[in-house]
Amino acid sequence: MTPTATAMPVSRHPPAIQEIRKMTPFVNFVDPSSHAKTSPSVRLMPSAPPNSVWITSRGYGSRHVNDVAPFTLWDEGELDFRSPTALERLWIINYYGATCVSYDYPTMTIWTPTPPNPVSLTAGCTAVIFVPPDFKEIPMMGNTVYANPRLPDPVQSISLSRRQNPSRDEVTAVLKALCRVANVHAVNFLSPFIFVELCSNDGRSYDRHSLPGRVAGHATIYHHGGTPF
Q1: Global pTM value
Q2: Residues in a beta bridge with 122
Q3: Maximum CA extent, the chain
Q4: pLDDT at 156 over 80
Q5: Which of 57, 107, 133, 150 is the least crowded, having the fewest Cβ atoms under 10 Å away?
Q6: Model pLDDT for residues 61-106, shown as the tens digit of each residue
Q7: What is the DSSP secondary-structure string of the chain?
Q8: Residue range 13-29: average pLDDT?
Q9: How far apart are CA 162 and CA 219, in angstroms?
């Protein structure tokens, strides 16, 4: 007989699982997209998950069902995020009991001792991460000085959108251009940046400022060896 699998309702999780969730109040467990995996060679910004957990689901500017902010930080006319007003900043601080808030679009990070329950994946239609007050933010950066913004952009025919994932053709053009100048292990499209992981087991080395610092209009950063990006 062919085995079959059935989904367990959220309310029927074993007590041990429920206890784990109580110990990690800053994570949204209900939404399976929280643990979505992408291709090991090309990684894009995550798209909006199924509509069942979204009031609006359209990529950037989507609103999660637990997002109760009376405003949106997504400007539909400009197709970009905007800075919050003073009153909106105050609402975020007061509602979430925030000790600190960073607006590093397309995400927002909120430091708070009292994360909302249930946890929302957006705040003001902006992807949000809730962390405890003692959380130390680790900036996203490479571990090399290979990038040189003065070198010509090898994909000048394309200017990637700041707030949309690249198309298949755009990804192909970027990969081909990078592979002409380096041995590429993976490319991470995290607009407005491109993070390039270089092969570390090929014996190849690169000089300082020897690789293009801008590709398809996006600032490009290189990571070589050591801990994977």
Answers
A1: 0.67
A2: 127
A3: 64
A4: yes
A5: 150
A6: 999 999 999 999 999 998 899 999 999 999 999 999 999 999 988 8
A7: ------PPPGGG--HHHHHHHHH-TTS--S-GGGG----SSEE-PPPP--GGGEEE-SSTT-EETT---SS--EETTTTEE-PPPHHHHHHHHHHHT-SEEEEETTEEEEE-SS--SSPPSBSSSSEEEEE-TTPPP-----S---EETTSPPTTTT----SSSPPPHHHHHHHHHHHHTTS-EEEEEEETTEEEEEEPSSS-----TT-EESEETTEEEEEEESSS--
A8: 58
A9: 11
Q: Is 157 helix (H, G, I), strand (E, B) or coil?
A: coil
Over the Cα atoms of the chain, what is R_g?
20
How far apart, in whole angstroms, are the C-alpha atoms of residue 79 and residue 75?
6
